[in-house]
Amino acid sequence: MDKIPDNRAWWLVLPVFLLVAFSALIPLMTVVNYSVQDIFGPGQAYYVGTEWFKEVLTDERLQASLIRQFAFSGAVLLIQIPLGIGVALMMPKSGIKGSLCLILVAIPLLIPWNVVGTIWQIFARGDIGLFGWAINEIGIDYNYTGDTVDAWLTVLLMDVWHWTPLVALLCYSGLRAIPEAFYQAAEIDRASKWAVFRYIQLPRLKSVLIIAVLLRFMDSFMIYIEPFVLTGGGPGSSTTFLSQTLTTMAIGQFDLGRAAAFSLIYFLIVLLISWLFFTAITHADKEK
């Protein structure tokens, strides 16, 4: 006789689902309401339909911010994923050295985002910062506050330093989950280190890497505090990403209607990319 499943445990997590749904639904509905109105102040709102969406989609400044955002997120993935895999492969498997490496690698993840921006703001200065002073001493004219390329590379380097440990820790956990029998079989077959990585470690890291790519892309796509503290979006608008443009529009200019429409488009982009990654993860699990 088939056993009837007991689903009463779902009642225990139902309050959490309701609380999360309530806390997410109210702000979202407020943004949707603002996106179709022109708001001048309390009680002064006029219905404009889809006018703000049309303006946002044709705004050259927002399009430029979107291009910078995708370029930054793409550069982050191209650097951090291979670098994180390399760090994970070099870390000791167990023992005191392994524990010490885990602690050292995880330190940047414990630093608050605004503190990271402040650290690099001082670290990259040409007069008192060790990094900026060293770059200038070897003959390179480096000034992240006045040169757009220097500013871009500094923000990218800061993000690599801050978040590559997350990729390394995820890959490390994936490597430790590989059964020892696979390595023993490779040793018997006299497989090279590259062959072990290509045919044993990398395939087993597929799901972990997809999760790492998802987390890093989403986080880099919504980056705000670090570049705001480090460069303020400058020089010019070279490091002004979507989140900073949205904040300036909503708070600095008090243009709530356009900001609400922009935030909904922003939300849909993030949702679409998340769905694509979720589909990729589900497809990878089915292939196992």
Molecular structure report:
With 288 residues, the protein is mainly alpha-helical. The protein has a single domain, classed as Orthogonal Bundle (MetI-like fold), CATH 1.10.3720.10. The protein is built from 13 helices and 2 strands. The chain has a two-stranded antiparallel sheet with strand order 1-2. Helix 2 crosses helix 13. The chain is globular and about 75 Å long. The chain starts with 9 loop residues before the first helix and ends with a helix. 23% of the residues are buried. The mean pLDDT is 85.
Question: Any chance you could write out the topology, listing elements then pairs?
Answer:
Layout: H1 10-34, E1 37-41, E2 44-47, H2 51-57, H3 60-90, H4 95-106, H5 113-123, H6 130-137, H7 148-176, H8 180-188, H9 193-204, H10 206-221, H11 225-230, H12 242-252, H13 256-287
Antiparallel strand pairs: 1-2
Helix pairs in contact: 1-13, 2-13, 3-7, 3-10, 7-10, 10-13, 12-13
* CATH top level label: Mainly Alpha
| Major beta sheet, strand line-up | 1-2
The overall pLDDT average reads: 85
From the N-terminal CA to the C-terminal CA, the straight-line distance is 31 Å
CATH H-level superfamily title:
MetI-like
Q: What is the CATH topology?
A: MetI-like fold
Write the CATH architecture name.
Orthogonal Bundle
